Amino acid sequence: MTISINKKLKPFCTYDYRYYVAYGGRGSAKSWSIARILLLLASQSKIRVLCTREIQDSIKDSVHKLLKDQIDLLELKGFTVQNDTIKHTNGSEFIFTGLYRNITKIKSMEAIDICWIEEAESISAMSWQVLDPTIRKPQSRIFISFNPRYEDDIIYKNFVLEKPDNAYVVKVNWNDNKHFPAELEAQRVHMQKTNPELYLHIWEGELKKNTEELILSGRWSIEDFETPDNVHFYYGADWGFSQDPNTVNRMYIAEHSEYGSNCLYIDYELNDRPYGVEGVLTSTSLNELPNFWNRLPEIKKHTVKADSARPETISHMRQNGFRVVGAIKGANSVEEGIEYIKSFDRVIIHSRCVNTIFEAGNYKYKVDARSGQITRQIVDKNNHHIDAIRYALEDCRNGKVDWSQASTILSSMIR
Q1: Is 373 in a helix, a strand, or coil?
Q2: Between β-strands 247-254 and 234-238, what pairing exists: parallel, antiparallel or unpaired?
Q3: Of 26, 29, 335, 347, which has fewest CB within 10 angstroms of its CB?
Q4: CA-to-CA distance for 239 and 257, rounded, in angstroms?
Q5: For residue 243, what pLDDT band results from cuts at 50, 70 and 90?
Q6: Are both 219 and 153 inside the same structural domain?
Q7: What whole-number distance in Å separates Cα of residue 406 and Cα of residue 413?
C-alpha cells in the first residue's frame, strides 16, 4: 500500500534509531502522519503499540479517534476498532493509557514494540524516567510528537537541546505539509499579522515566551507586502565571525501606512548561517563575501552601514564595488538604537525574512535569576539582524552625518 505522509517523517518507518521525535507547530500533519505510519506497520506484521500521553482521563483524550478516522479514510482492511483498543487480524494491537495515573501499570507492561507519546511537551520528568526503560523489547522504538512549550521541559531538553546519537529528531511545520488546508491558512495569516510572537509559538514551533522579556514585543508584525517604487532604501550589515553569521538587511521608512504615519518596513535579508538549519559550519569567506552580498537587490546602488569593528572587511568590500561605511556607534549606541527601532509605530517584516523574524521574536532583556525580575540589560544573543538594522538606521537616529569625517575615521582605523 502507498499512503501519503509528511516527507520529513519517512524515517519513522525504519529501525535505524531508538527514538523518533517530531516537533513543531500547528498544521504540520505530525500526528496524522505518525498515525498512518503505525497503522501501515501494524497491518504488515504483528506489533504491539502503546499510545500514551501524560494525562488521559478518558479514551476521548487519546489518539484513538485519530487512528479510527485514518482507518476509515484509508479504507484499511483487517482492523477492529473497540471502545478502548484497536486490533488487527494479524494480532497487532493498539493500547491507550495515560502516564500520570497509570505509571505502576505501565512499568509492568511487556512486549511493547512501539510506544507513541503524543503531546509530549507535558510529560513530567518522573513519567519519562519510568517509561523510557519500560520499552525494552529488542528493536523496540519510541515515537514522540509535540509542540514545544518551555526550554526546561524534559522532552525538549533531552531531544532538542541535547540530541542523543540514537535519535532521529526533526522539526516540522505547516509549510512542510503539502495538504495544509485553506481554512488553517486563513487562521495562520491572521495571527502572523496581528500577534507575531504567539504566531511563532503556535505555527512555527518556537518556545513560549514571556512577552515582557521580549524587547520588540507588540512593536512588529509579519506580512507579505509589495515594496513601493521610489522609496529610499537603508542597508545595514553585521559581519560574521566563528559561529556568527554574516547578515545584511534592506529596509525603508513609510510615512503613510495602515499602522501609522511612521513605520519601518524590512523587505530583504541575507544570512549565511540561518537559524535552525544544521550543517552550515562556517560563515562566508572574505573572498566569497562580495558574491554573497550581490544576492540582495540593488545593494550596489546604495550606501551600506556596517559594523566598524572590521575595517579590513569594509575595505575589501569597497574594492569590490560596494559603498560601505562603518557605523560610528559610540556609548549606549545599542540601547539608543533599540529605542529608535521601538519608536516606529510599527516594524513590518516581510515573511521571506525568516531569520529577522526569528530574532524579532527572540531578542530579550535579561531576567534576574534570583528574583525573576526583568532587567533593562539586553542579552547579547539573537541580534545579528537587529544589529544590521540598527547600523542601517544610525543616521536617521543621529541626524545627518558628515561623511568626510566618517571616511577620515575609517581611514585611520585601516592604517
Answers
A1: coil
A2: antiparallel
A3: 335
A4: 32
A5: confident
A6: no
A7: 11
Q: Indicate if 148 and 265 belong to the same structural domain.
A: no
Helix, strand, coil percent content, the chain, rounded in steps of 5? 35, 20, 45
Contacts 24+ apart (CB under 8 A), 258-263: 259/221, 259/345, 259/346, 259/348, 260/344, 260/345, 260/346, 261/345, 262/343, 262/344, 262/345, 263/344, 263/345, 263/346, 263/347, 263/348
Instruction: Kindly state the helix (H) or strand (E) to which residue 21 belongs, with its residue range.
Output: strand 19-23
Establish if 401 belongs to a structural domain: yes
Q: Is residue 219 part of a domain?
A: yes
Residues 169, 129: Cα–Cα separation, whole Å: 19
- The pLDDT mean for the chain works out to 90
Dmax (CA) for the chain in angstroms is: 84
Q: What are phi and psi of 218, to 5 degrees?
A: 75, 0
**Alpha-carbon gap, residue 123 to 357, rounded angstroms:** 29
* Cell 525574512 found at: 353
pLDDT, residue 281, reads 57
Count the Cβ atoms, other than its own, within 10 Å of residue 28: 26
Cα distances (angstroms) measured from residue 324 to each of 174, 289, 315? 39, 13, 8
Is there a single domain that holds both residue 277 and residue 384? yes
Separation CA 331–CA 407 (nearest Å)? 20
3-state SS, residue 51: strand
283: domain CATH number is 3.30.420.280
Residue 35, classed as helix, strand or coil, is: helix
CA distance 68 to 81: 7
Q: How far is CA 270 from CA 196, 265, 267, in A?
A: 21, 16, 11
Same domain, 170 and 262: no
Residues 96, 166 within the same domain: yes
Side-chain half-sphere exposure of 148, counting CA atoms within 13 A = 30
User: What is this structure's pTM?
Assistant: 0.78
Asked if the structure places residue 300 within a domain, the reply is yes
Per this entry, what is the length of the chain? 415
Grid-cell match 523489547, residue found: 137
Instruction: Domain of residue 388: give its range.
Output: 209-414
At 11 the three-state DSSP class reads helix
